[in-house]
Amino acid sequence: MTTQTPAAPIAKGLEGVIAGETAICKVEQDALIYRGYEIADLAANASFEEVAYLLLVGHKPSAGELKAFEDELKADRDIPAMMHDKLREGAKLITDGAAVPMDVLRTGVSVLAHMDADCQDNSADANLRKSKRLLAKIPTIIGHMQNAIDGRDFVEPDSSLSHAANLLWMMTGEKPSAEAVKVMDVSLVLYAEHDYNASTFTCRVIASTLADLHGAVCGGIAALKGPLHGGANEAAMEMLSEIRKDIGPKNDAAKINAWMQQAFADKRKLMGFGHRVYKNGDHRAPILHALGRKAAEARSDEYVKLFELGEAVQNIMETQKHIFPNVDFPCGMTYFTMGIPVPQYTPIFVASRITGWCAHIMEQHANNRIIRPRVSYTGPDLQKWNG
Ligand code: SDX
Fold it and tell me: How far apart are CA 305 and CA 150, in angstroms?
């Protein structure tokens, strides 16, 4: 019996294809909305923990619900001691150039699966418990990994600190300023969710086989790593460093323009620019740009010059190509200004997007059908193996 591949137009990269329904997030050129709340409203008025609760549980928390949620996260930050040596081994691989932090984080989440008593349970209650535990523990993996890379002792989580503040504390062993915590907190709010982006779609495909939440999250981390997706925040900063090296210490407009014309001639993809949905700008980018620039102005001229370089690049992209920065462009400059090591930018994206991924995995499990599209065959005609 033969089955025919249906004759349907092929949308390369699934562009424009509506592949499902979600109550979690709406991504449109005219607005970015998490469960009914607009992103600028959330960035200005909600903490990351409030947004995490909104995404995972489904509604804005009351004061009591928020306090209980924050306490639960703080109590769950420790990771099993047997992971400590694994993270030191991972850090050695990173130092030797055999791995990057996103690989070690992916392995860390995979190991956490083995330690989680709920691992094989896909019920709504178990999924929520696992989501909260992952949200609480991912900063600890990132922090321990960075301390091992830097040759320092591990820094214990601090239960007096918020998610954003604890993340900065664990990575450095220094208590962050209120301003740094605010910038980190808002960046986490902005990164938390974005409907059917590649990593979230990956999570949903894995969850749709009725595989477990940790497995789906490992797939999400693997997908986010790529420079066309979350890896772009690191790649954007690397690109700005390359421009700086090429043009020298001054922001000479003619030299920046010449660099850009060469990039256009080489048909180079400029990292941190463009988006599948936003063709006239990403709602998150100006919010993070303004905060990052303020942090740069408070720090020193060197960082202001970085933002000025970014603004010059952005201006040329917008006026000559009508291509706008996505959230990863200001993120690169902002995290650099905060002194965060570049290879940890995408792991920090994970520390936030874990909320969106888990919300989608739970939504998929709650109303599941396996995700299994068709493909158009373009291989050889039928032939005989023996002749
Ligand atoms: C994220 O999907 C999400 O929601 C993702 C995300 C989230 O929150 O989850 O928003 C996070 O992943 C942001 C994107 C990070 N990636 C980058 O910054 C990498 C650089 N950008 C691109 O490669 C690209 O813009 C994508 C991957 C983001 C989108 O790819 P598309 O939709 O397939 O667009 P395309 O590559 O087909 O581009 C359309 C045109 C092309 O020109 P033409 O062939 O039509 O002449 O725009 C040009 C592209 O060459 N173009 C760029 C460009 N982005 C698009 N040209 C130079 N530099 C760029 N960055």
Answer: 27
Q: Is 289 a catalytic residue?
A: no
What's the sign of the alpha-carbon dihedral 224, 228, 232, 238? Answer: positive
Shared domain check, 330 and 355: no
Instruction: Confirm or reject: Cβ of 269 under 6 Å from ligand 1.
Output: yes
Q: Is 229 in the pocket of ligand 1 (CB under 6 A)?
A: yes
275 lines ligand 1 (CB under 6 A): yes
DSSP state of 28: E
Helix intervals (H) in 26-117: 39-45, 48-57, 63-75, 82-95, 101-115
User: For residue range 215-265, what is the model confidence (pLDDT) as tens digits?
Assistant: 999 999 999 999 999 999 999 999 999 999 999 999 999 999 999 999 999
Give the domain CATH number at 201. Answer: 1.10.580.10
258 and 222 share one domain: no
> For this structure, is 283 an active site residue?
no
Whether ligand 1 lies within 6 angstroms of the CB of 379 is answered as no
Could you list the residue range(s) of the whole structural domain that residue 310 is in? 232-337
Q: How many angstroms does the Cα of residue 293 sit away from the middle of ligand 1?
A: 24
Active site residue 125: no
CATH number assigned to the domain comprising residue 314? 1.10.230.10
pLDDT in tens, 133-151: 999 999 999 999 999 999 9
